Amino acid sequence: MNQKIKYAALGIALACTGWTGASAEQVYELNPITVTAQRYEKKDVDVPATTQTFTEKDIAATGADNMSVALGYLDGVVTSGMGPNGASNSSMTSKIVMRGVENGTVVMVNGTPINWRNLYNLENIPTSAVSRVEVVHGGGAVMYGSQATGGVINIITKKKLDNQVEAGWGNRGRQSYKVSANAGRFSFAYDYNKWGTIDKVSDYNTKVTTKKDGKTVTLFPVHMQQKFRGSEKNNFNAMYQFNDKLDLLYNHNESTNRWSYKYSGIPEGNKYAGLNGQTRYKTKFERDGDFIQLNLHDMDGFSGHIFYNYNSLATHQTNFYSSTASPYKPDNPKYRSYSKEKNKTYGYDFQKVWDQKDKQTFLLGTSLVREEYKNHDPGATSALDREISEGRNIYAAFGSWNRNITPKDTFTLSGRGTWTTGGKKQYHNFSTQAQYLHKLNNNQSIYAGFGQSFVLPTLRQLHSRFDISSPDRIIGNPDLKPQKGTHYEMGWKMETEHRQYKAALFTERIKDDISFSKQTGQDYWDTVNEDFKNKGLELTVKGQEKNGFGWHAGFTYQNPKTKEKSQKKTAKTYWDRHYGRILLNGGVDYTKNKWETALNFSYLADRVMTPTSAHSYDTKPYLLTSFFAKYSPNKSDDIILTVDNILNREDVTSHTSSDYYSTPTTFLLSYRHKF
Predict the structure, then answer these.
(1) Where are the extended beta strands (E) located within 632-665?
(2) Is Transport a UniProt keyword of this protein (predicted)?
(3) What pLDDT digit, counting tens, does each position of 104-130 carry?
(4) CATH code for the domain of 327
(5) What's the pTM value of the predicted model, to 2 decimals?
């Protein structure tokens, strides 16, 4: 984006924030009812945990068209980006990190976890389909099972969509087209999104080596650069509401991302200097998924869902040079490689709530998840490695007892038993949680809680095998232990008519955290266990003024660290830092007659990069920014401008040794018509 457009966007923001007055029809919601934290409805101030509700208005104010970007502006979360607009790079997906736990966030859609082997593709969930998001910070495994060691994000979709069409165009090849409609109980939507090329997405320094007389010899130092060669996404949603108690959701999504890696920085005079600017290899990742969910809502305290979740990832790679810089010819078997991974989960989750009003509440539930993992790698030299197919069943029984000890004091005790069958290795676990809340008055409370969490190793972490001809470079470990964590939290909440305040102190300790380690000279990653610890402070405030202004701010201080468990010489058997200690989130929005505007930011400071086989080192802060403006000349039409990275910063949004950069300033100008 040129300077004129950048200053114009900032000018609109400043002009709008200078107005006064508010629409008489504007509705404010600062004291929401939440469901996710305890699996049944409660006022936020009565929930003994750090919670956050991201309303439809909050989501729109980020200017994002997908949930990966939108959730990056939540209070207290660190983002880990791999590409523009939340794009995935193979199985390296963009992440929402809560309380410093890298793979500890469970993402749900209407209460159903959509994680596939501890990953999720939030970039494939359009914001236009979402009604609100409920977030619970801290370990939530007792309520929602494996992986909820850092927090839970529950994306609640709309039950009925508007009749509208929308088209948008921007710089860097951006295009966006949307259509949605409803006919009584049936609604559907289709979204298409396209991006062009970004010349430099990431880079890293390394050495090209070879073996000579049994010794490793350096051929040349090199600076590898990665280019994003464009993406396309298609998303289809359909919803049918049988009645107030029963509805059906179906989603199908497809996406294609293209990348390439090239040599640069080879010193002049080196005989390999001619490789500068040459492409070593290029990749194309094709992903498609299906999600089906049948939801039953509060039928005399009984509720639940049946679900099916399928994801596939196909990797096409063209190799122009080997790892030792030898050129490949098209007739070489290693010139092209292909693999396809499939992950499937299906099952049910049902619960019954007995609410004895002011005395106590009982909840009992059960769930079953069938997991299946398949990997097809025709280029593997071993026939055993060409086809991997594993599966298992995960059963759970859970419950909670909420007792009103006095009119102001509440105690909650929860537990979950989990066990597996059908796999090569069986696991079982029982986790508990105890929480206490004291009401200072109707709008203010203090609370304290203790909980346990766990994470089962995924089928891929247990069984994946590596072949040098394959783009899949993860070695599974069948001896992996499940993660087990303990979480302590105490906090304070206060709500007024136009303000919401929250403060929390937390401590987290996880044993046998599952991670990946890449040793010096290796071209693949080992699956290993490590220990994790973190403690910190979270402060948030949200306000809505009568004159149309809204604002929110969050501050987090933490110090996440990990320590590996391995016998390898290069294992990091010491406590090493991750992410950053200081996190600031905030934003302002304003509504005036036909205008809506918003400005949001996320700032991570005192941060480090953490290589897998070397000590962490300091790096500069990142500052993510977005601007949103909507003008509605009448009830049927909207003109929308969104701008990302309005300061055009080149910040590193990854957290390991490879630098993945924030996308340069982009804008999208859209027109929407409602009919």
Answers:
(1) 637-644, 659-660
(2) yes
(3) 888 999 999 888 777 788 888 999 999
(4) 2.40.170.20
(5) 0.89
